[in-house]
Design goal:
Number of helices: 14
Number of domains: 2
Distance between the termini: 57 Å
CATH class of the largest domain: Alpha Beta
Radius of gyration: 24 Å
CATH architecture of the largest domain: 3-Layer(aba) Sandwich
Order of helices and strands: HHHEEHEEEHEHEEEHEEHEHHHEEHHH
Largest sheet: 6 strands, mixed
Strand content: 15-25%
CATH superfamily of the largest domain: Zn peptidases
CATH topology of the largest domain: Aminopeptidase
């Protein structure tokens, strides 16, 4: 058995790059097939099959329908050198790196589409795992790789269900990257919470006896307006957004039922708690003011993504060598961003979630194509998007390989993580489990 200093070794790095380049046509085919067959969260049956078949054919041991989720999977590879160590009773010396493939699409009215480019995230995960595997094999290196297929990132967060089942335990690091109209390593990715609010009143005739009714729509409108007023006193980095999903059956009936969806975001756990508390006060006050009762169902809580400095700087270095041009860190951190259940993973194990530019390869930010738009659906199947995806995958694979083989690197990552996310962190209350009903 031999060990390399890091993926800076030219032969090791070339093995990773060549392994990914050799699969470019097959990876593009997988990406296009998933793009042409968009599926919503927890319904990614086609994507689940094509991804698991692909990675299994390339030497990974695959568990389909993993963690009691129909469309989740985990694919594992243990190098021969690692197997030998395990057989000799030294399994504690085998490090494990995880990569993630997302696969769900977004709804557009009656249609669906990959408006966040999860077809590309799917193949970035495949390519990262494959590149790392080949380098381990060719150089007789010690390491274990796990590729996770995670459903429903756009809705309630399959990664959260997987965390609760222990999916990410034992990893030294877990990484993924996401398409965007910019190349950014130091993303300010917000937390997000989502809830359904339902108000219950009493129906009556809107003309003959409106005074006998209790208007649930009044409560929902009161909540909507209250949330709009709260926005001015939240931090400029926080967000609150709301839609009314049911406003009553007919104009001549005092509505006895109304409902809405509310989402709230922040850059830190403390601000997340403040925004959540403000939302709850408004929602409950609307019920009290109108005489209605209220049911609040929490549907998702994604944590902000902490950036592991060691992983981020290593990925940035490798991708810069591959031609990615980054803006200064302060500019990267100031760019607007969304939220992801990868934040929850990165509070369990060290992780990163960089984004890569699928509009151009020369570093320019293109604001004409934004995530969650029809334009992004079209861009996510282009040759440029594919090339950018594989470039990012090479950066992840090289970084992941260093987690496995570079002496001291995994320890430094862990130390940084434990300082960022101390055990017994008080943020747990702000991020309660899904499906909590108040």
């Amino acid at each position: 058995m031999t060990n390399a200093v890091s993926s800076r070794d030219p032969k090791i790095a070339n093995d990773v790059k060549q392994a990914i380049d050799s699969e470019t046509a097959s990876l593009r085919e997988v990406s296009l097939q998933i793009h042409s067959n968009p599926e919503l969260g927890y319904e990614e049956v086609f994507a689940h099959k094509i991804l698991t078949d692909y990675i299994e054919e390339r030497g990974f041991t695959v568990t389909r329908h993993a963690y009691d989720l129909k469309t989740a999977f985990v694919a594992e590879y243990v190098s021969p050198a690692a197997k030998a160590l395990i057989a000799d009773g030294h399994g504690d010396k085998v490090r494990t790196v995880g990569f993630i493939s997302e696969m769900d699409a977004l709804p557009f009215g009656d249609a669906k589409g990959h408006a966040c480019g999860h077809n590309l995230i799917a193949i970035v995960g495949l390519a990262s795992a494959l590149g790392t595997k080949v380098a381990l094999e060719k150089n007789n290196l010690v390491g274990r790789i796990k590729l996770f297929g995670t459903p429903a990132e756009e809705t309630t967060g399959g990664k959260i269900d997987m965390i609760n089942k222990g999916a990410f335990e034992g990893l030294d690091a877990c990484m993924m990257s996401h398409p965007a109209p910019a190349d950014v390593v130091y993303c300010t990715i917000l937390s997000v919470g989502g809830m359904t609010v339902e108000y219950f009143g009493k129906a009556s005739h809107a003309s003959a006896s409106p005074w006998e009714g209790v208007n649930a729509l009044d409560a929902m409108v009161h909540a909507y307006n209250g949330l709009a007023l709260v926005r001015q006193q939240t931090a400029p980095t926080s967000r609150i957004h709301c839609v009314i999903t049911n406003g009553g059956a007919a104009a001549n009936i005092i509505p006895d039922y109304a409902s809405g969806k509310i989402m709230y975001r922040a850059t830190s756990a403390d601000d997340h708690t403040k925004v959540y508390d403000a939302v709850m006060k408004v929602v409950n006050a609307a019920a009290e003011a109108t005489g209605c009762t209220v049911k609040i169902t929490k549907e998702m809580e994604y944590q902000p993504v902490p950036i592991n400095e060691h992983l981020a700087s290593r990925y940035a270095s490798y991708t810069a060598d591959l031609g990615v041009k980054y803006l200064p860190r302060a500019v990267q951190e100031s760019l607007p961003s969304g939220s992801t259940d990868m934040g929850n993973v990165a509070h369990v194990v060290p992780g990163i979630h960089p984004v890569f530019n699928i509009v151009g390869l020369n570093g320019e930010i293109d604001r004409s194509v934004s995530n969650h738009s029809f334009g992004f659906v079209a861009q996510a199947k282009t040759e440029v998007a594919h090339e950018a995806s594989l470039r990012s995958a090479k950066g992840l694979a090289l970084t992941g390989l260093d987690v496995l083989i570079e002496e001291g690197f995994a320890a430094a990552i862990k130390d940084s993580f434990e300082k960022q996310i101390p055990k017994g962190d008080s943020t747990e209350e702000a991020f309660e489990s899904n499906e909590a009903t108040v």
